[in-house]
Amino acid sequence: MSNINFEQANMDYLVDLSGGNTQLIKEILQLFVKQTPPDMELLATYIQQEDWENVYRQAHHIKPTLAYVGANGMREELQVIESIAKNRQGLDSITEKFNALLPRLETLYGELNAYLRTID
């Protein structure tokens, strides 16, 4: 692994999962960086529409991808959003929790893109 300092990710899980295969790591990270933003946009739309069933489903869909890149803190935060939407309790806090997650995701995308530039 490169000497990139990750604030939002821990690459250990991905390295273990891939057996240290740099090409596989690159492919997984590229897929994450490409697919997660549209998934998050869809989640934002569901939150704005107060479509709590789809908020629950979309958060549930995104959550495991955060584990792949070791963003476990964000994964836990998404779990909270998922639980709130599923249980329909504390719904007024979802927008605030989601908005707090977005800048951290942007940092994560930057970190992952920087790392991807170091891989052949």
UniProtKB/TrEMBL annotation:
Domain HPt: start-end pairs: 21-119
Entry-annotated residues carrying Phosphohistidine: 60
Phosphoprotein recorded as keyword: yes
Pfam families (UniProt xref): Hpt
GO process terms (BP): phosphorelay signal transduction system
Keywords, comma-separated and alphabetical: Phosphoprotein
GO molecular function: protein kinase activity
InterPro entries, per database record: HPT_dom_sf, Sig_transdc_His_kin_Hpt_dom
Protein name (record): HPt domain-containing protein
Lineage, highest ranks first: Bacteria, Pseudomonadati, Bacteroidota, Sphingobacteriia, Sphingobacteriales
